[in-house]
Amino acid sequence: MAQQIEASRRGFLATASAALGAFTLGFRIPGAAAQGATVPEINAWVVVKPDDSIVIRIARSEMGQGTLTGLAQLVAEELNADWSKVTTEYPTPAQNLARKRVWGNMSTGGSRGIRESHDYVRKGGAAARMMLVQAAAESWGVPAGECRAANSTVTHAASGRTASYGSLAAAAARVTPPTEVTLKDPREWTIAGKPVPRLDTVDKTNGKQVYGADLKLPNMLNAAIRDCPVFGGKLRSVDEAVVANRRGVRKVLRVGDSAVAVVADTWWQAKSALDALPIEWDEGPNAEVSSASIAEWLKAGLDAPEAAVGNRAGDAKAAIGVAAKTVEAVYAYPFQNHACMEPMNATALWTADRCEVWTPTQNGEAALAAASEAAGLPPSKCEVYKIHLGGGFGRRGAVHDWVRQVVEIARQMPGTPVKLLWSREEDMLHGRFHPVTQCKLVGGLDAQGNLTGLTMRISGQSIVAGIFPQNIRDGRDPVVFQGLNPGGEEAAIGYGIPNILIDHAMRNPHVPPGFWRGVNLNQNTIYLECFIDELAHAAGRDPLEFRRALMTRHPKHLAVLNAVAERAGWGTPAAPKDGMPVHRGLAQTMGFGSYVAACAEVSVSDAGELKIHRIVAATDPGHAVNPQQIAAQVEGSFVYGLSAALHGECTVAKGRIEQENFDSYPVLRLDEMPAVETILLPSGGFWGGVGEPTIAVAAPAVLNAIFAATGKRVRTLPLRHTDLRRA
Amino acid sequence: MAKLNINGQVHEVDVEGDTPLLWVIREQIGLTGTKYGCGIAQCGACTVHVDGVATRSCTLPVEAVTEEQKIVTIEGLSPDGRHPLQQAWVALDVPQCGYCQSGMLMAAAALLAENPKPTEADIRAGITNICRCGTYNRVLAGIQRAAGETGARG
């Protein structure tokens, strides 16, 4: 632990360290980690203690996806560390700012945790190793080139001398950092690339892992909040006298112009008082919006003349005009809530000259910016301590509405720490929702059944317009075309179609959109991959063969598709399961830097009951840092994708979201979970993410298998709206 | 004033009788391994044992629990964190974010206590807790491993 502690903080440190254990994650005293306290860092990424234990600094957030372990593997690999001695800690966002962002971007989304930072974190590990070697060489008076580092020990073979990293760390910290660093060929890796166990598992099996919702600070009060359920509405009045005398209630506070919070001794007291509090809302201009009115507006966008182009080659409309056969279909995808298991929460302590916030966040720096704004203090007078997330999925990244709220509450109670925890209902009503879109596709086939032209009109919401409007250029949101881009290294379509036009008619309802795990790749892949299946059927061709014919210039896309087809036994009949025939469906896409494909095996009973037996999924992420954690991400991605495909839908009535809890927003549970077989095909030469891409192939693979089983095309999600009974 | 036997220790707590057991455990007793997920007994993150029965504590008023009833939370599942399920969870790296796993483990422990050799169908029917990260297949394998099976799927 850090030794140099402000006296006033000792009490808190004792509380925090007892509750959290040493090195836990953002809970060290401000500045201590970066300044190194009594143990100087070798560089920003590596601290080695006299007992040989190693602290690797992790700038990205751990939300279950295993990034903490993967990044530590990459640093430890180049450090030639003894992996059993490795621990981790989070530097804080304010430390990062104070040190000119020495830890780079802290944002943890878009499956970027490893793929965006692998180079500089490995260089950090390699530089630290070189400095340890240099320190040993200098102390022995031998050339550094004669020394070798392995397993946290430097050896000079000629003289038989050895020194542990711990004994060298103080001297290494004074060595001038190298200017040239050479990284290992991944084929030489012994820690990275291996299925090592996660570093954070044990505390997640015994109740010791402290989440934001569990935080306790001395003299802390608890807050529950209700924001106007109609987006864009305002708080008109509350009758606080009704709850003022309830046990434990300390304050009823306005938060911004649209929310009210009750602050009490315990959260249950605060939440119960809030439930009893008479509140009047000014519901504002959106109070009559409904799912039907949104759908009508989007439908008009399917044929609107104005649209931003994402992918154009040849003349698709002309090609379709002369086609031997045309196929047309309209698909639709609803709002989804992230529904993290841990509802939004944060704790804040505000005084006139400092504001501190403890919160689970995917982006510590964005949380710091939100805290600073709400606190009325510059970032240099604010700090954010990151806590492991109880789920993130994009909800806790770009927008920190709950951080603003807790700071606005704490600002009204100077000197008193306040923890704000949203109820599940608040979390469901005030999500940042997966965008709503519709899509009209038209394809033209020639007499031989070849696809000669494709148009794809997306109508609907832009996440970027809602969150980063400055990134909209000439009315065009580039992220809308994920998985459909004409080429390049990110989210490129996997088909060579001679005449193609993909465009977007932007229509932004008042429901705030967010980056929802998988983002726009999710619905785009459903639209394209289900429609490709429709085209194959119309052409009288096998869906795999039809795809292959379009993929001759897309070898990486093709390789993962071929891998799932081969493993699943495509082309040979599937063995019946429980007396039911089993049918298969395929899908492939590319996004977040990786190439993915899936083959689903399903049965549909005469009564229309769907059973998903097995998913075979292949991923080419370029390089694989921890294969067993990639498998965990792939398995989890099918839960997320299939939850949405089978069940997930947030509907709008009277301007507000109708689903308030898991009873009306069902998600996949163990009884519906298929077996998932993960095929990992790292082809090298690039770095792709693994947290998101396979979500996108979950739904279309299953929907195409349902068509194979029933002859029914499901074009409007979720699936529960479609009657799968045999006609 | 209510008396509660939690993890073998009797606690006296001064709360309104309709306070859910979950919030007494978290806020009065100070054991935060038991989680709030939904408040309506849907997700199972708040699962504890009451006399050995897996119970969703977020909807159980504390006044409905007697001093004689034995409440066990994740902190009391084993003295050393080495319950066969906890060992299996570590061996298979079951948790992702981990927030649901206390409830998942408590539900699984109650299942195994009642049915030491469950079939895969028993487990699928018996574990209804929600995990949003999607650990279900490793939860299934973890229970099978703890039950002394190979963990292979049937």
TrEMBL record, chain B:
Domain 2Fe-2S ferredoxin-type residue range list: 1-77
Keywords: 2Fe-2S, Iron, Iron-sulfur, Metal-binding, Oxidoreductase
Top-level taxon: Bacteria
Keyword DNA repair among record annotations: no
Single GO MF descriptor: oxidoreductase activity
UniProt cross-references to Pfam families, sorted A to Z: Fer2 (PF00111), Fer2_2 (PF01799)
Entry keyword Disulfide bond: no
SUPFAM superfamilies: 2Fe-2S ferredoxin-like, CO dehydrogenase ISP C-domain like
PANTHER family per the UniProt record, alphabetical: BLR6218 PROTEIN, OXIDOREDUCTASE WITH IRON-SULFUR SUBUNIT
The protein's name: (2Fe-2S)-binding protein
Source species of the chain: Siccirubricoccus deserti
Lineage: Bacteria, Pseudomonadati, Pseudomonadota, Alphaproteobacteria, Acetobacterales
